[in-house]
Design a protein that fits this description.
The protein has 452 residues and is of the alpha/beta class. The chain is built from nine helices and 22 strands. An eight-stranded mixed sheet has the order 6-21-22-20-19-16-17-18, with helices on both faces.
């Protein structure tokens, strides 16, 4: 039998095609799938199960949604999908207030009511402690942020110089990290002083942002103090640009720092420090010094840490990953002998400058120094998202402190570290704090007590 042109298995011009396909050699688009969302994953994606039993992860969905999705990634045990439409909306869903939310990756949970966000985060913590840490626990109490929006005192934006002098500056797009969603001060995350300075900075940085340091891509971090003054840290780039002109043109911008590579940030214009009032403490912050981004929620967390520590008079305390030393200073004034350990030399310099009697600070990696400072009655751990180094966990197992207060911004690494020390310490309490509304991030404080 002769073959007919354009018949089954051939394209319109006789090119090979696929049976049941479009006839042009391209695979047909996947059929939409309906899935019921059960929970929220640590990355902010909704979690459901496909009819074949595989787990699927879908951004912009809420627990209880019946969602129509297109599968974008397939693995043997799990998949990832893109939301096409909500067939049955969850009662936990709301219209996101921010006009940038549709594409922006800066927030992941803004489509959920705030109390629903809190429940989701508490479940994320409990799941991590159970699944990774081997500690069966109910979702912990989670303390809400005093402010749901306009809470960030530090915000980092990506800047890219595109063709024809065009500049894009904002957050990376959701699911497309190479794309930048251009944002102005209408973004609902920054404190008001940062939003005002960001708008003024965008208007003043000139054609091709030539008043900023050179380079195709930059990272711009704005930090506001309690008085509403703002500093700018520029990471990346080469020549410093014309920063003095920006200081003169942008009301409220008091200093500009530049870090072109891995070296410490250098002041290139304005005041050498940003004075900050933090509870009962006053510090001078450099361009890159760490401080919690949500001052209202951080105050609640710090009060809880003080409550867990109790009467520390006469105690020996190690404050590991101490930053500028807020905990160390407060406990030293309460009568404890405290040593703070911190890697950032600028943070240590500020901690030493304002140290009260009874507090001392050492600079270097915690894993290299903690054994020299043990034994201790109380150890405070406040590591970055990667958690504590294995040598830190080993040191605390070999020379146990009576109590350990662990402050974590990553439930997964917290759970891993608790498991590492679980044969020596008993988990006494867990409480979470919402320092990052509209995102899936959550801060957790646990108290560990040496097993008798």
């Amino acid at each position: 039998m002769s073959e007919r042109r354009g018949g089954r298995g051939r394209g319109p011009a006789g090119r090979p095609g696929k049976p049941g396909g479009r006839g042009d050699g391209r695979r047909p688009p996947p059929k939409p799938v309906a899935v019921r969302i059960d929970s929220i994953a640590a990355g902010g994606e909704g979690v459901g199960r496909l009819p074949d039993g595989r787990v699927t992860f879908v951004h912009r969905t809420a627990p209880g949604d019946l969602a129509e999705i297109a599968l974008t990634e397939r693995k043997e045990r799990w998949t990832r999908g893109r939301l096409l439409r909500v067939l049955e909306p969850s009662p936990e869903r709301r219209d996101p207030p921010c006009r940038f939310y549709a594409r922006c990756g800066g927030c992941t949970l803004e489509h959920m009511a705030y109390d629903a966000q809190l429940r989701a985060k508490a479940r994320i913590v409990a799941d991590a402690l159970t699944r990774i840490g081997g500690v069966a626990t109910e979702p912990p109490e989670i303390v809400p942020s005093p402010s749901e929006f306009r809470y960030r005192n530090r915000v980092s934006f990506a800047l890219r110089r595109a063709e024809h002098g065009r500049v894009e500056a904002g957050f990376h797009a959701l699911g497309a990290p190479d794309e930048i969603v251009d944002l102005d001060g209408a973004c609902l995350l920054p404190e008001e002083p940062i939003a005002r300075v960001w708008d003024a900075l965008r208007a003043a940085w000139g054609a091709d942002a030539n008043r900023l340091p050179s380079g195709e891509r930059l990272r711009l971090t704005l930090r506001a103090n309690a008085a509403g003054e703002v500093s700018l840290l520029v990471e990346g780039g080469y020549s410093p640009g014309r920063p003095e002109e920006l200081i003169a043109r942008v009301d409220g911008l008091v200093s500009i720092w530049h870090r072109p590579g891995e070296a410490a940030a250098e002041l290139i214009a304005g005041a050498p420090g940003l004075p900050e009032t933090w509870g009962d403490e006053t510090v001078e912050l450099s361009g890159a010094a760490f401080l919690q981004v949500n001052r209202g929620a951080a105050a609640l967390l710090e009060a809880h840490v003080a409550e867990l520590a109790g009467d520390v008079a006469g105690s020996r305390i190690v404050d590991a990953y101490c930053g500028v030393g807020f905990h160390a200073r407060r406990f030293a004034r309460a009568g404890a002998a405290v040593v703070g350990i911190e890697l950032d030399p600028q943070a240590v310099e500020e901690a030493v400058r304002a140290a009260p009697e009874g507090a001392r600070f050492v600079e270097g990696p915690v894993e290299d120094l903690i054994r020299l400072e043990l034994p201790a009655d109380l150890v405070i751990l406040n590591p970055p998202r990667a958690g504590v180094h294995p040598d830190v966990a080993d040191a605390l197992r070999e020379t146990p402190a009576e109590r350990v207060i662990y402050i974590s911004c990553n439930p997964a690494t917290l759970a891993r570290d608790l498991k590492r020390m679980g044969d020596v310490y008993r988990l006494e309490s867990v409480r979470s704090f919402d320092l990052f509304p509209q995102t899936a991030h959550v801060e957790t404080v646990v108290l560990l007590v040496a097993a008798s």
